[in-house]
């Protein structure tokens, strides 16, 4: 074969190779452009980190459109959920969001009215009740008897207890409160909001509330770092407007549960000659449960000798401190002695 023929063959092969290369390059360029266009049209699901605040979340938190009128209030709050002793170690939970960036605190722009809190509530102590929690007084907006104890709430807002959370963390707290008290009147929602904020304060977890919400309220963390709040199998995505107001009021320093627990503490000391101190009320409510749904074994851990200071409002019983076993025996003996003298 002549040199001319060989060069012709090589030139033709080289031309074919170039054509294939250009075709392949064109294919990959078109694929890249398609992926870019596709990704720009996909909706943003949710924040991947605690500092990511999507426009949707921010809009939802600051407009009336946050409330979905098609979602009915939940029928029952959960049982034994927000009732876990915070002294339990959060060690295994402390690393759940190590990859999350520190959220930026923000002050709410919502102007709150103290008219949302009544001037007073009344504690009614039931006598000869068949309830499993017969010793728990009920907080009422109007007295049932002359023996009811009036609790003044005019100083229920204490700026020393005000705190700040990022908008996204406020959104998560609102979801928890809606799950726990979405079917409650506003005061019930406020008390649960104080409970949740109190737990965050107790755990000192302002920079990362994930462990507290997972430990105390069974929030679920997915692999992308997003927290989900469920009621049964239903995920809660939108809290009501009243729940948002309750959370804002709790963050502003509302102390309704603290004032009620303080009044119960004073009454117990007077009734039984105890010397219960401010540990029972100084932080407000840190626990709550549904007396209608709690199981018997759990109820046995919340008797008067374990939880001497508590009160009920609507469908929840609130308290701020558990007693250890040694104190349980002392209080049991005190109750037994008192009953034998009657």
Keywords:
three-stranded antiparallel beta sheet, mainly alpha, 9% strand, 342 residues, disordered C terminus, 10 strands, 40% helix
Describe the structure.
This protein is elongated. It has 342 residues and is mostly helical. It has a 3-stranded antiparallel beta sheet, covered by helices on one side. A 3-stranded antiparallel beta sheet has the order 8-10-9, with helices on one face. α3 (167-181) crosses α4 (186-203), α3 packs across α6 and α4 (186-203) crosses α6. It has 9 helices and 10 strands.
Brief write-up:
The protein is mostly helical and 342 residues long. It has helices spanning 3-41, 55-62, 167-181, 186-203, 210-217, 241-251, 256-272, 296-299, 325-341, and strands at residues 120-124, 138-140, 149-152, 220-221, 227-228, 230-231, 234-235, 287-289, 310-313, 316-319.
Which helices and strands appear, and what pairs or packs with what?
Blueprint: H1 3-41, H2 55-62, E1 120-124, E2 138-140, E3 149-152, H3 167-181, H4 186-203, H5 210-217, E4 220-221, E5 227-228, E6 230-231, E7 234-235, H6 241-251, H7 256-272, E8 287-289, H8 296-299, E9 310-313, E10 316-319, H9 325-341
Antiparallel strand pairs: 1-2, 1-3, 4-5, 6-7, 8-10, 9-10
Q: Could you tell me the number of beta strands?
A: 10
Point out poorly predicted stretches: 40-81, 86-111, 338-342
Q: What strand line-up does the widest sheet have? A: 2-1-3
Structural class: mainly alpha
């Amino acid at each position: 074969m002549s040199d001319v023929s060989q060069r012709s063959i090589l030139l033709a092969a080289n031309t074919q190779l170039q054509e294939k290369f250009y075709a392949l390059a064109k294919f990959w360029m078109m694929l890249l452009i398609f992926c870019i266009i596709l990704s720009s049209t996909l909706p943003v699901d949710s924040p991947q980190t605690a500092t990511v605040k999507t426009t949707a979340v921010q809009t939802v938190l600051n407009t009336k459109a946050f409330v979905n009128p098609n979602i009915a209030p939940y029928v029952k709050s959960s049982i034994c959920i927000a009732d876990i002793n915070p002294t339990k170690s959060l060690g295994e939970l402390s690393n759940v969001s190590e990859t999350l960036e520190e959220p930026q605190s923000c002050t709410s722009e919502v102007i709150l009215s103290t008219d949302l809190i009544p001037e007073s509530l009344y504690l009614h102590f039931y006598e000869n009740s068949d309830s499993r929690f017969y010793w728990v007084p009920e907080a009422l907006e109007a007295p049932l008897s002359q023996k009811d104890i009036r609790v003044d709430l005019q100083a229920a807002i204490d700026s020393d207890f005000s705190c700040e959370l990022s908008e996204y963390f406020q959104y998560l707290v609102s979801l928890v409160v809606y799950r726990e008290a979405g079917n409650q009147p506003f005061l019930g929602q406020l008390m649960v909001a104080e409970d949740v904020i109190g737990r965050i304060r107790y755990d000192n977890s302002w920079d990362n509330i994930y462990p507290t919400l997972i430990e105390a309220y069974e929030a679920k963390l997915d692999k992308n770092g997003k927290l989900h709040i469920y009621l049964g199998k239903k995920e809660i995505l939108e809290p009501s407007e009243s729940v948002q107001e309750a959370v804002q009021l709790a963050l502003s320093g509302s102390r309704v549960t603290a004032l009620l627990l303080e009044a119960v503490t004073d009454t117990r000391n007077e009734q039984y000659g105890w010397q219960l101190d401010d540990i029972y009320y100084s932080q407000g409510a840190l626990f709550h449960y549904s007396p209608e749904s709690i199981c018997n074994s759990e109820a046995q851990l919340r008797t008067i000798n374990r939880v001497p200071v508590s009160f009920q409002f609507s469908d929840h019983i609130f308290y701020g401190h558990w007693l250890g076993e040694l104190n349980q025996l002392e209080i049991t003996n005190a109750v037994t002695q008192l009953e034998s003298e009657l």
